[in-house]
Design a protein that fits this description.
Elements (H helix, E strand, L loop, with lengths): L2 H15 L14 H4 L10 E9 L8 E11 L4 E12 L4 E15 L5 E16 L26 E16 L3 E8 L5 E3 L3 E3 L3 E8 L1 E9 L2 E16 L2 E12 L2 E17 L2 E17 L2 E10 L4 H4 L2 E10 L21
Antiparallel strand pairs: 1-2, 1-17, 2-3, 3-4, 4-5, 5-6, 6-7, 7-10, 8-9, 10-12, 11-12, 12-13, 13-14, 14-15, 15-16, 16-17
Length: 340
């Protein structure tokens, strides 16, 4: 097995050994329901969102997608949402799917500040398919033997587990703070042995600085804005920080993000090195109801030449409604989070 395959297998089984950590999207602000059920109905319109990420392209690595739909329930001052997600590593026969239904209730803290409390209920499914793998006894001869005598060769395993989410979102028209606890019950499942999904904590916050002069582009008048944001997440023994800034200059969107732990160090060859992951550049366009964003991750670790970068694309379509905003907030889009 060559060096790149060894590194890939090590990274994959390390992640499984870390209690089946969740797949992560670089454009976390484009798939809000995946990170906090309190975002359901948050833009006071019906909204369809889809995201796709290809990670570790140098090794044909992880691929993941998500599709979600949420809407605002005006008469109940609440929102509802649903999402389906899947991530897989075809060359290792691994897949992980989730389905989640979410509900969020809006309450008033003050004239300009709102609180959204959300809950999500659903299930997850983890699978291993050994039919496409090459086993050790197949490599003993020359050429590679077409069949293996290993007892798991050609088999597939699958397991389901119930899932829960809880989350809180406090926001005004300028800023937001989001806190969620996913898998708080740390569900276990049997898949060639007992496995566990560790709970995941997500904390994000940001502030929207609007420019004074709005831009009129093909009949769409919108204020340009700069929005710095931070996402801190922890799952089991793994922690990660996303720090960056996003600029909306109608109709274009640009962003730059750093992912890593700048205060944490890893020891390599007896020397301390910064524990950093990637630098992400985003370009997108937003016009009327449609938003499209593309981002590319440049790996900052010592394995950049082997792992390669990561591609990600997001699409959001809003179904405009005539719903009025919550009392005391002038505009229908009360939540200032980036659209993608």
């Amino acid at each position: 097995m060559n060096k790149s395959k060894l590194i890939f297998v090590f990274c994959f089984f390390w992640s499984l050994g870390s209690a089946a950590q969740d797949f992560q999207f670089g454009q976390f602000y484009a798939v809000p329901l995946y990170y906090n059920p309190a975002f359901a109905g948050s833009n006071l319109n019906s909204r369809f969102t889809a995201g796709y990420r290809s990670q570790w392209t140098g090794l044909q690595g992880w691929r993941g997608w998500l599709a979600s739909f949420d809407l605002y329930l005006k008469n109940a001052s609440s929102g509802a949402g649903i999402y389906l997600s899947n991530n897989s590593i075809d060359r290792l026969g691994y897949s992980h799917s989730t389905a989640m239904v979410q509900y969020a209730y809006r309450s008033k803290i003050s004239k300009k500040i709102r609180l959204s409390t959300g809950i999500g209920l659903g299930f997850g499914q983890v699978g291993l398919n050994f039919s496409g793998l090459t086993f050790g006894d197949q490599l003993e001869g020359d050429p590679v033997a077409p069949f293996s005598a290993d007892q798991v060769a050609g088999r597939s395993l699958s397991a389901f587990y119930p899932d829960i989410q809880i989350g809180f979102l406090v926001y005004s028209q300028k800023w937001w703070v989001s806190l969620s606890n996913l898998h708080p019950h740390s569900p276990t499942f049997e898949l060639n042995g007992e496995n566990q999904i560790q709970r995941r904590i997500n904390l994000s916050f940001g502030y929207r600085f609007e420019m004074k002069k709005p831009t009129d582009y093909k009949g769409e008048i919108s204020p340009n804005a700069i929005t710095p944001a931070i996402l801190i997440r922890n799952q089991g023994s793994a922690s990660q920080l996303d720090l960056g800034i996003y600029m909306h200059y109608v109709p274009f969107v640009f962003g730059l993000w750093y992912r890593g732990l700048p205060t944490s160090f890893a020891v390599k060859d007896g020397k301390k090195t910064l524990n950093q992951d990637a630098l992400t550049a985003l370009v997108g366009i937003k016009q009327n109801n449609l938003s499209i964003g593309y981002s590319y991750d440049v790996n900052l670790s010592g394995l950049v030449g082997v792992l390669g970068g990561s591609h990600e694309i997001s699409v959001t379509y809003e179904f405009k409604t005539k719903y009025l905003s919550l009392k005391g907030l002038k505009h229908s889009k009360a939540l200032p989070c980036p659209s993608f």
